[in-house]
Amino acid sequence: MASRHVNTLNPGDPFRDWLVKEVVGDRLRNKSCSVNVFKYNSSHTVCRYQFKGEHFSVMAKFFAEPTGQLKDYNPSKGMMNEYRNLKKAASVINVAKPLAINKKFNCVLVTEHIPGKSLGWYIRHEENLDARLSAVAHMLRQLHENTKSFYNKENEFRNYHDVLGHLKLDHNTRETFNRLLGEWWYSSLLNREYGCMIHRDVNPSNYIFCKGKPYALDFESSWFEANPVRDLGILAAELKNEFELHMGGGEKAEPYIGNFLWEYSIDEKDFYYITRALPFFMSIGLLRSARLHQGDYRNYLIREARECLKAINYR
């Protein structure tokens, strides 16, 4: 994710001094160092703080500084929610570990900075992509297997209807989606014995490879009691979308998606269950992407999402 230098903080700046004295002081040789600030494009103000001469950085997300469409929410609650989610996930998989939170500084969450290339970079360059996707598949399996809980099937459908609501579809299109969702609800394809914690925001930019290992970022929207296939379906949709936009066609993503699902699966029976449930969650992923586009490409994503749901007729 691209960033730009926006400031340099010197001793005496309240935020810089808090970072040095209470968050990372034990990792700095020169506690009087200046701090370069690099800003990223995100749904909140997100910055990297680089301690000059120390070869060390941290990331900070300011929940009271939303930059996206969603502005009517409780920033303190959002800060605490992601902090707890990261703590939970960090006990199971590699994440950007949370270091501190502070309401006084616009509800800031400070985490480790993970240097490296994102999964998105490997997708766009098609470099060692199967191996990178396999690593992410194994990490997601570890997260899902080690956070088992009650399964809330109703929440999956409630969220789907929320996504449809944001798209403001015409009446006939919405009715088609409603009918297909009813067929999925009454089928057994999404039934399962247990739910789990899911990452949920499985955007390729949220997986960073550092020294060959994947690290997961951004657990603000993470869920519990969820269907693990949601993470797989959203990432499959992201792959299809990336290949359609930048790599010469969405169909070219299919071999990578197939290998990713196989690497996630325990055995053939598990693979069979996952591939039968996958279209429902791929459909959600495509609709999420549709919210970010206009015109023909938006319509293309909505059509593809509808075709995914129609897969229930061939099961």
Layout of helices and strands:
Elements lengths: L2 E7 L4 H10 L11 E6 L3 E8 L4 E11 L8 H16 L7 E5 L5 E5 L4 E2 H7 L3 H17 L7 H15 L3 H16 L9 E3 L8 E4 L2 E4 L6 E4 L2 H18 L7 H11 L3 H23 L4 H16 L5
Helix pairs in contact: 4-8, 5-9, 7-8, 7-9, 9-10
Features:
2 domains, alpha+beta, Aminoglycoside_PTrfase, 47% helix, six-stranded antiparallel sheet, globular, Aminoglycoside 3'-phosphotransferase, Chain: A, domain 2, 315 residues
- Helix count equals 10
Number of self-contained structural domains: 2
Q: What kind of sheet is the major sheet?
A: 6 strands, antiparallel
Q: Give the CATH H-level superfamily of the largest domain.
A: Aminoglycoside phosphotransferase (APH), C-terminal lobe
The CATH topology of the largest domain is given as Aminoglycoside 3'-phosphotransferase, Chain: A, domain 2
User: Spatial order of the strands in the main sheet?
Assistant: 1-2-3-4-6-5
Structural class: alpha+beta
What CATH first level of the largest domain would be assigned? Alpha Beta
- Looking at the overall shape, the CATH architecture of the largest domain is Alpha-Beta Complex
Average per-residue pLDDT, rounded, comes to 95
Q: Roughly what percent helix?
A: 40-55%
Q: How would you sum up the global shape?
A: globular
Number of strands: 11
Give the terminus-to-terminus CA distance: 39 Å
How big is the Rg?
Answer: 21 Å
Low-confidence blocks of residues: none
> What fraction strand?
15-25%
* String of helices and strands: EHEEEHEEEHHHHEEEEHHHH
